[in-house]
């Protein structure tokens, strides 16, 4: 009992004394949890074909909230980066974000093969990234390059592949706007992760930032990307639901 209380007080002390990494772990947990609740509640506001999209958004933020709870405790007790927890989180949530791309364009003709390719690319990106981050300095760059190839394929799909073509040929202004925003998330938001990887010792940007600051960047990126992704999907779902209901009343 005393040990648990002491750990709690140490964690509270770090947050009170403005440890920025500890604060972002705490804020990330709360923001992800609140977002998951929001997306679950709002499923009742959209048509049936969009309910799964909001459920996936809730799963993404809910899974992240659970991991952030444990990552926060790990960081507070050890002062070390919770790399394994983080990659478990990403391995679950990033493929789900790829599922969101599929669900977003499915009403406009997206095929299952596109979803399969996106998920494979995301897993390649994450698995090779984890190997590179944990296997030692001598292998960092090789595995980082392989991880980047997976990321670049996802970028290709969103900008010029099947996803982009479906968005371009759809008659939905809401989808067009959503794809524009998601492109920003993919290029700017997701780019934080490979940049963080390159800051590790032995990598291209080694020494550019303190390694201890990587968690700060990762935490902010996770919150922006995962919650932002869900909000974009929510916006499309609401707009398309309003459009279909208006047409039904006409």
UniProtKB/TrEMBL annotation:
Keywords: Chromophore, Membrane, Photoreceptor protein, Receptor, Retinal protein, Sensory transduction, Transmembrane, Transmembrane helix
Compartments, record wording: Membrane
Family annotation (InterPro entries): Arc/bac/fun_rhodopsins
GO terms, biological process: phototransduction
Cellular component GO terms, alphabetical: membrane
Membrane topology of this protein: Multi-pass membrane protein
GO molecular function, one term: photoreceptor activity
Main location: membrane
TM ranges: 20-41, 53-71, 83-103, 115-135, 141-159, 180-200, 220-239
Family recorded in the similarity comment: Belongs to the archaeal/bacterial/fungal opsin family.
Name recorded for this polypeptide: Bacteriorhodopsin
Species annotation: Cyclobacterium xiamenense
């Amino acid at each position: 009992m005393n040990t648990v209380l002491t750990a709690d007080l140490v964690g509270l002390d770090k947050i009170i004394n403005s440890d920025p990494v500890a604060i972002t772990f705490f804020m990330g947990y709360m923001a992800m949890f609140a977002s998951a609740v929001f997306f679950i509640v709002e499923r009742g506001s959209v048509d049936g074909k969009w309910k799964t999209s909001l459920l996936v958004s809730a799963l993404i933020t809910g899974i992240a909230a659970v991991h952030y709870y444990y990552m926060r405790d790990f960081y507070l007790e050890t002062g070390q980066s919770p790399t394994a927890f983080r990659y478990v989180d990403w391995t679950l949530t990033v493929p789900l974000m790829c599922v969101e791309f599929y669900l977003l364009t499915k009403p406009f003709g997206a095929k299952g093969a596109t979803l399969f390719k996106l998920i494979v690319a995301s897993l390649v990106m994450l698995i090779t990234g984890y190997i590179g981050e944990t296997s030692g300095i001598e292998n960092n760059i090789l595995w980082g390059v392989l991880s980047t190839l997976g990321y670049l394929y996802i970028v290709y799909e969103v900008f010029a592949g099947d996803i982009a073509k479906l968005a371009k040929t759809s008659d939905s202004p809401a989808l067009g706007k959503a794809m524009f925003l998601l492109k920003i998330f993919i290029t700017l938001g997701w780019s934080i992760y490979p940049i963080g990887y390159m800051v590790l010792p032995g990598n291209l940007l080694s020494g550019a930032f303190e390694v201890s600051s990587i968690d700060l960047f990762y935490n902010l990126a996770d919150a922006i990307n995962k919650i932002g992704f869900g909000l974009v999907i929510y916006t499309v779902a609401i707009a398309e639901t309003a459009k279909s209901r208006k047409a039904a009343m006409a």
